[in-house]
Every structure is written in structure tokens, then in C-alpha cells.
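Per reviewer request, we include the raw input and output of the structure prediction for the construct analysed in the revised manuscript.
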Amino acid sequence: MPIDAIRTAQELDLVKATAELKETVLQEARGYHERSVLAAQSFRLTEGEPFRGIRVAKATEHIFANMPIRIRRGELLLGWHPSTHASETTQKAIQEANEYLRKQNYWVGASEGHMAVDNETVLRVGLGAIAEAIRERREALDPIHRDTPEKQAFYESARISLEALQSLIRRYAALAREAADETDDLLWRAELLESAAVCDQVADGPARTFREAIQLTWFLFLGVAIEAGGSHHCFGPGRLDQYLFPYYARDLASGVLDEEHAQVLIDQFLIKCNEFDGPSMSAVIMMLGGRKPDGTDGTNALSFALIEATDRVRCYFPGADISWHSDMDPAFVRRAVRLLRNGKGQPAFFNSDVIVKGLIRYGVPVEHAVDHLPSTCTETSIMGRTNPWVAWPYVNIPMCLIYAMFDGKHPVRETQDRPATGLPQTYDELKAAFH
């Protein structure tokens, strides 16, 4: 059979496999709650360690080394978020582990997530270079400064966590090779060996191709989510069309990547964003368009490819948000508006010009301000530069007004929930009570 015919058959099979992957993900997606059992196992071994960060890092290391991994047929983008379908015995073990971890201060009283990590830098320099930078900073600490032990613990925690992610990626490289040895399908075997080579590269080095870049992006997303808990914790890929575009454009131009494989990789990325849990009030944000640091329109061919994939895949996550501005490509605006017709509530539009002005007013440099994104729906963060630790307290402004109107009492329960300010008779009295 001619090579072109073999490649066409392969691509058509991958498109079918991607559709099957979507069905599997939608049927199986649950939070990964057995991770608590693994975290508790590690915490029991580190009792007496004075630094909580090191204990948490070693728990992450234990989770990544022992969590189940899986490659489904036709899955080019490796990295599975395990799903909990617990028996009564397993559920009891999870409950006991959570009770122990709460007593051990495993979780902190703030919301992790609600952000996008600095994918662009990681893709450019690689995990190995970041691990080396951590080691260098630790070694450069003043050995007699009173703050040094705490800083050493921080860097050690970062090193352990990062090397744990590298080891997880290498586990997938090994699994891909095992699966390649076991299959009789030559096309699938070739894809598995390619996936193994991709994992070998991104476990330590920078991304060189679009496939390596999107694979490392997924591993980063998967890693921080599992480190934080059983679901996605409102982490998100951020401005995917900006930091992946150089790889996408270069590979398409050189012939390293064809449109069909690009579509499969993009579709699988969007589908796999739904592995963490079913639809919920939380968010996984993908921001499209916006401006470049020099102020020009950031819309590009990958922006269009991602909006088309969102329409094609039609999953709950990730939320496709448009960073609209006055100079945006009109064709992209029309395509984004047309996407609203599918009834999925996407995309959301954010006025980037207004948001950037506000961030600049608060001292954010313009080249950073353009990388804004809604970390869920209630706050603006800067991709790779913000860990807002948000999510509470939420302030119910209308309820504050109601309390001001009713002397601090709940109008239904009639309980005195707020200070007694009297029943206002004038607007000025209402304004004073509200303030």
C-alpha cells in the first residue's frame, strides 16, 4: 500500500479513536480520591519532619510514583487522570485517610489553583533546567542566616515535587514502549514509540515540536492538579494559542506536522480537560486572542484551530474565553460569536482593553497585563505570575443591602445576623447602614 494511503488510514483511525476517547472520558470522569490514601501513607512515614512543605512534596512524590497510569488505543496525548469508582471498603479507607491528613495539616486554609502556570517558560527551557536552577538557588543560600533553614526547605520541596513529575513522565515513556511491544498494529506501534520518544524529551529537556509542546503542557496541567487534590482545582491552560503557536506554525510550515495530526492532538487536549470531574460550578479556562506584549493583535491560526476544536468537541471543559480588544481580527470575532449558537454557553467575552488599563493602573507592566485571564469567573490573574489564593470570602453585596434595610436581621429567618442599624427612613440612613 502506498505511504500516503497508509497515513490516511492512520489519521482516519486516530479521528475515530479520539471520538471513542471522548465517550470514555465522559462516562468515567470522576475525582481521584484514592490519592488521599497514598498521601496518608507518605505522611505517616514523615511524621516528625519539621517542615510541612517537605512532607507535602514527599506525598506528591509517593502519589506520582504509585498512582495508576493508562494509555488508551489511539491516545496520542499521554497522561491519564485516574477516576475514583470506590467500593465500600475503598471509600472507608479514603475517609480514614482524609481524617488523618486533616489532623496533620496536609491541606491549608486557602484555595490552591485558580491560575495558569508559566507554561511558556517551561516549554522553552525544560524541566531539567528548572530543577538545576532550584539546586543552584539552594546552594547559594547564606549558611548562617536565620531564614536559611526555611528557604532550604522550600527549595528542597520544589526539587522533590519537580523530580516527581519528571519521574511520572518517564513512567509513561516506559508504558508506551511496553504497549508498543504488545501490539500487532504497526501504525499504533509507531505512534506509541513516538509518544515514548516525546516523553523522553519533555521529562528533562525543552519542547522542540508542537507534539512535544502540547504534551508537556498537558503533563504540567495534570501534575499541578493531582498535586493539589482530587480534581482540577481551577487550574487552566491559559493563553494556549499564544505560547503553543510558534511550535504549531513552524511544524506545519516544515511538514513535521500535518493538519490531521494537529487536529487530533488539539481535540484530545480539550477532551482530556474533562477527565478530572463532571460538569460543575468550577472552571478550566482557555483564553484565546488578546494582544501581544507589543500591543498588536494576538489572534493567529492556532486561535482559529482551537475555536474550531471547541465547536467540534463540544465538552464542558475547558471554557473557551475570548480576550476581545478593539483591534481583533473581525473574522475571529465572527467565528467566536457563531460558536455561541451551539447552546453550550461558550465562549465568554472579556474586554481586554479595559482589563489591561485597570491592571496598569495597579502597577502591572503592560507586557504582563496582556497575559490576563479569568482564573474562574470572579477574579483576574496574570498567567504564570499570579497565585491569588482566592475563593473566599465571597461577598454577597445584595444581601448586605437587605441587611441594611432590615436592621441587620435576616428577612426570612428574622435572626439578628448583622449589627442593628435601625430601620432606615431616608436614603442617607440606608446608605449609612449599608456602609
